[in-house]
Amino acid sequence: MGRSQQTHQKREKEKQRIRQREDKAEKMQERKANAQKGKSLDDMLAYVDENGNLSSSPPDPKKKKLFNAEDMQIGVPKHEETEAENPERTGIVTFFNGSKGFGFVKDGQTGESAFVHINQLSGPLKENDKVTYEVEMGHRGLNAINVKKIV
Fold it and tell me: Which residue positions in the chain have pLDDT lower than 70?
């Protein structure tokens, strides 16, 4: 008599496959039993109201807003250079190092800080001096130019 070609491991794998098939069939039967039959298309639809929220009821046609396609801007609007009415600002020197030749001026209205170099000064400066200046954009941020001490 010959030995059986089916080993213990092969039999266990076959039993496991059969068990998985039976579990899958049971789950499918449960889903079919629990499924709500007779759901209409209207029950499955979702609507977007005038505020952009999802709702189960259709939106009110009275609240509908009409827009002109020509009035809509898609993308970022082009930057328009606006000329400041008074390019001269006033501020206070918050820090100044005379030996290194630089400091910072804080704008009196906006509170922005601007870098100032000794080449842009009309006279000697020290901390807490009130100054008038103009602003230009430098490599690292705002630069104060034409800085004059207010007496």
Answer: 1-4, 36-39, 82-86
- pLDDT tens-digit profile of 114-133? 999 999 898 888 899 999 99
Chain mean position to CA 91: 33
Rounded distance, CA 39 to CA 33, Å? 14
Name the token pair of 5: 């070609």
Neighbours of 13 (CB within 10 A): 11
CA 80 – CA 72 distance, rounded (Å): 18
Task: Give the whole-angstrom CA distance, residue 85 versus residue 107.
Answer: 16
Q: Where in the chain are the domains?
A: 89-149
**Fold designation for 89-149:** OB fold (Dihydrolipoamide Acetyltransferase, E2P) (2.40.50)
Determine the distance from the C-alpha atom of residue 40 to the mean position of all C-alpha atoms in its chain, rounded to a whole number: 40
- Smallest Cα–Cα separation from 146: which of 93, 89, 98? 89
Q: How far is CA 27 from CA 23, 32, 33, 94, in A?
A: 6, 9, 10, 74
Structure tokens at 62: 């009275």
Both tokens of 71, joined, read 């009035």
